Amino acid sequence: MKMRYALLAAALSLLLAGCQAEEPVETVSVPLGTATPMKESAPSEAPSPTQDPLEELLARQPIDDDHDAFLVDTGGRLGTLLVTAELEERGPEPKPGWESWEYPVCFAVWNPKDMSQPIQKLEGITWGTYHWHEALDANFDGYMDFSYMYAMGNQPNYWYLWVWDEDAGQFVEVPEYREISGPRCNPETEIIDGWARYSGGGDGLTTFYRWEDGALVCIRRIETGYDDENRIYVDEVSYFPSWIKVEDRIDGELTQVYYQYFAPDAGTDFFPERFKWENLDYHGEN
């Protein structure tokens, strides 16, 4: 009998020891339809954007006192092209007629998809002006062209223009553009106008150009100036006669359609008349 109680006591002791060894597990009930919140993970770092291949190509080009480079998105089948420019030496025998300030500049057009050799080479001169370029649709055909300044004064500035020929897959120069000072292309009117100031008195040359059958032609030329030789003095103040001349394109030629000379004591000058003729719809008083 005593042996039975001893065995029973030992079994109870083992059972109690096993219960004390295990920690109680707490359970949480979640109502139906309630999402169980998940532990938020640390935000991953966004991948650094890769540099545009064209911009990377441009960044590798030398741009300094003798070199220049820029991109032109032609909008055609060749897409964006790289244009580089390099000043060249005048050499011991410069071209006849060159002035001391004129230096040759060589342009090269590259297809970024094949940089083994340029697809085109262009030549020009610069009058000490460099690093001025512009991509624009100068002939309003939907393809992008580029211009490059070759001369600049206090106000007048002159540019080369190469327009993109989609059929030929090349740029073609427009020599007439060289004659336009400060050219401005208006896509609404498809007119290119320019202005070259002669002096601080506000006289100068205003020109208007238009594309006709693929050629750039001047359709109006307004020139104003002062007659220095016939100025007069009133109370030691000098007054200059002034004049205005207007030419329109008639039958393919620039023809004078208006001229007016203003005496120094006339009480007026060329400014009101020039303002009228800058409107291409104006053709003089009836």
Brief synopsis:
The chain has 286 residues and is mostly beta strands.
Keywords:
3 helices, 12% helix, mainly beta, 39% strand, disordered N terminus, 286 residues, single chain
List the helices and strands and how they pair.
Blueprint: H1 2-21, H2 53-59, E1 67-73, E2 80-87, E3 103-110, E4 120-126, E5 133-136, E6 145-152, E7 157-165, E8 170-173, E9 184-186, E10 191-197, E11 204-212, E12 215-226, E13 232-234, E14 237-239, E15 242-250, E16 253-262, H3 271-277
Antiparallel strand pairs: 1-2, 2-3, 3-4, 5-6, 6-7, 7-8, 9-10, 10-11, 11-12, 12-15, 13-14, 15-16
Distance between the termini: 147 Å
Q: Largest sheet, order of strands side by side?
A: 9-10-11-12-15-16
The helix content is 10-25%
Backbone shape:
elongated
